[in-house]
Write a structure and sequence with these properties.
This protein is α+β, with helices and mostly antiparallel strands. The chain is built from three helices and four strands, in the order αββαββα.
Length: 146
């Protein structure tokens, strides 16, 4: 009987050591696990002001594109598709010429994008003379129109 208790005690101690070692290994592996997708998580803002540092933010949305479109952006899937099409080059989302007539009133509006696109940090902004110029410059695009 004593031998059996000693054997059970030894087996329990060994099992505890194995579990402790396994738990430590599993924990280390979990920290090293890498995602299959490069992260793409952005915060987009629009507001009154001449530059990104002094803008009075009026609206802000989040946009996650990988592994699937999400966030508070009203058209997340279309915005992600548009950004993928231009390879994350936000300047390409702003059109040059437009047939929209705008006043020359100077009430600057700045659009900003900050975060990570395909695993790379991004910090982009564009200032327009007024809201009409912003709408004309963004055209039919959805990524920066929120």
């Amino acid at each position: 009987m004593r031998r059996t208790l000693k054997a059970v005690g030894a087996a329990a101690a060994a099992a505890t050591c194995v579990l402790a070692a396994t738990a430590g290994t599993a924990h280390a592996e979990a920290q090293q696990t890498k995602s299959l997708y490069a992260p793409s998580v952005l915060v987009l803002t629009v507001g009154q002001g001449e530059d990104a540092d002094s803008v009075a933010v009026e609206r802000a949305v989040t946009l996650t594109c990988a592994p699937r479109p999400a966030g508070t952006h009203p058209a997340a899937a279309a915005a992600c598709a548009e950004l993928s099409k231009v390879g994350g080059e936000f300047a390409q989302l702003v059109g040059g010429a437009s047939d929209v007539m705008c006043t020359k009133e100077w009430r600057p509006v700045t659009v900003t994008v900050a975060g990570v696109w395909n695993g790379k940090h991004v910090n982009w902004s564009k200032t327009f003379g007024n809201r009409c110029e912003m709408k004309a410059g963004l055209g039919e695009g959805v990524a920066l129109s929120f």
